[in-house]
Amino acid sequence: WPELSLADVGYSLVASRAGFEHRAVVVAGDREAAVRGLEALASGEPGAGVVQGVGGAGGKVAFVFPGQGSQWAAMAVELLECSAVFA
User: Fold this and answer.
1) Any alpha helices (H) in 17-87, and if so which ranges?
2) Fewer Cβ atoms within 10 Å of its own Cβ: the N or the C terminal residue of the chain?
3) 33: pLDDT confidence band, cut at 50, 70 and 90?
4) Where in the sequence is the domain holding 50, given as residue range(s)?
5) 86 touches 76 (CB < 8 A)
6) Residue 4 confidence class, pLDDT cut points 50, 70, 90
7) Please, which residues have CB within 8 angstroms of residue 2's CB and are 6 or more apart in sequence?
8) What is the C-alpha separation between 40 and 27, in angstroms, rounded?
């Protein structure tokens, strides 16, 4: 689907898919590299930028603010409560 941007595809995968035990990541700088990585993943072959694994047990949530502005206690609580991507 050449009309779709990689950013849009990535967002849709993060925001609308269920989390499964087996996971894979394709790291790519452009569409062609992404296609090569996805083809390698689909065929079970190793590929540049392809990482596979099994998800571990869920841990505690942690978020670090970089200190480039003012911070306050519980500053991300609302974001945590209303954003599935952040959570």
Assistant:
1) 31-43, 77-82
2) N
3) very high
4) 6-82
5) yes
6) confident
7) 31
8) 12
Q: Total domain count for the chain?
A: 1
62 domain-assigned:
yes
Q: Whats the size of the chain, residue-wise?
A: 87
Helix (H, G, I), strand (E, B) or coil at 26: strand
Write the CA distances from 81 to 76, 78, 85, 87, integer angstroms. 9, 5, 10, 7
| 31: nearest Cα among 53, 43, 13, 49 | 49
Mean pLDDT of 44-51: 91
Tokens representing residue 21 in the block: 């035990």
- Indicate whether 81 pLDDT > 70: yes
What value, to the nearest 5°, has the Cα angle with vertex 21 and ends 57 and 39? 140
Q: Burial letters for 40-52: b for 16+ Cβ neighbours within 10 Å, e otherwise?
A: bbeeeeebeebee
